[in-house]
Amino acid sequence: MRRIATVIVSGLLLASCSTQRPLWRVAEDGEYWYKAEQFERSAADFGEYVTRKPDNMEMRYNLARSLVAAGQPREALSHLSVCTDVEPLNDKYLDLQARALFDAGEREQLVEILSRASSERGRVQDFVRLGVFSQRLGNLDEAEQALLTAAKIDRGRSVVVQRSLADFYGSIGDTDRQVRRLRMAYYLQPDNLETIEAARAVGEIPGPTFGLVPEELRLTNVPE
Prior knowledge:
By secondary structure, the chain is mainly α.
């Protein structure tokens, strides 16, 4: 009887192992449900993946992404802390961490993390991120200063920075400076449809004379 029982238990264990989805299928299922906007099911799949292979930061990020989309930003924060600790220079991880903190109402922690990233690394994208979230928090002076700092570091070469400044000025009703930054963005990339649409939305007609050399680019004495 003991031998029979052992055989039965072994058979059940083998059956259990054979029905466990391979990790590649778990990841595929999670991505499928995410694209279908079934975020809780997506989180369940990515959660299973992370449980079985906790050192995979990309799957941990996907789990956090699903949790944020499902309206559970607090649950995502612990996973994002792991991601940013392991890969502190991964902007994708920090972007989502900032969004999760904002959605969770963790204002002080959000400002602290983004301010530290900007001061320690001093990269353009860090100051743009700080500026965008400072604007969302209603810290307008800090937002403008961060975006202007990004433009100086960038030396007027990035459409993203000029557009971020244009969007900021537009949000506070400063149309003159909004148009000025749109003209600078247009100068850098005249075929950018989003810039063209933004200019038309404020009554401007983009054309050969619409572009304006970014002021930060002029200060570097780079030939036009």
